[in-house]
Design brief:
The protein has 192 residues and is an alpha/beta fold. It has seven helices and nine strands, in the order E-H-E-E-E-H-E-E-H-E-H-E-H-H-E-H.
Amino acid sequence: MAFDPQNKIIIITAPSGAGKTSITHYLLEKYPQLAFSISAATRQARGNEKDGVDYYFLSAESFQEKIQHQQFVEWEMVYEGKYYGTLKSELERIWNNHQVPVLDIDVKGAIHVQQQYPDSTLSLFIEPPSVDELKKRLQSRGTETEESLAARVNKASYEISFKHHFHRIVINDHLPRAREEAARIIEDFLEL
């Protein structure tokens, strides 16, 4: 049977620092049937981020207008005035290209997408081996203050409590093994 990506969605979610982005990049490189779903955001581009590649950078007014017109599959105001979301048009773009969208999104957004597409999603929760290990990973980045580190660790503990809402849990205690486990799950879902 020919591969049919229509309406299938792969969701990869995890607390910050669990390895979600590393695993997502690995899967996108390994499987040409997959395409990264570009999120919309109201924040400014950082460094060499590009509009339409890393994010769709929108003004808060434009984002709110799209919310009113129900153009998002999921969205969230992460901080006051800072919105992130997945546009329905982005999923359509990828499906029209005969690929499966891969959503690298937070836990709340992931649950929301699953609720809207209950029969066509596969959700992976990337779990750190422990909260202590996650804290070490975040500290090693050197980008966190004591306050932001504490906030991220608290948020991670909270997000881990939702792990059983997802189809599969991949414990990332060794990145190569976690990548291969995720790949096997994807192959089963796509019937490759």
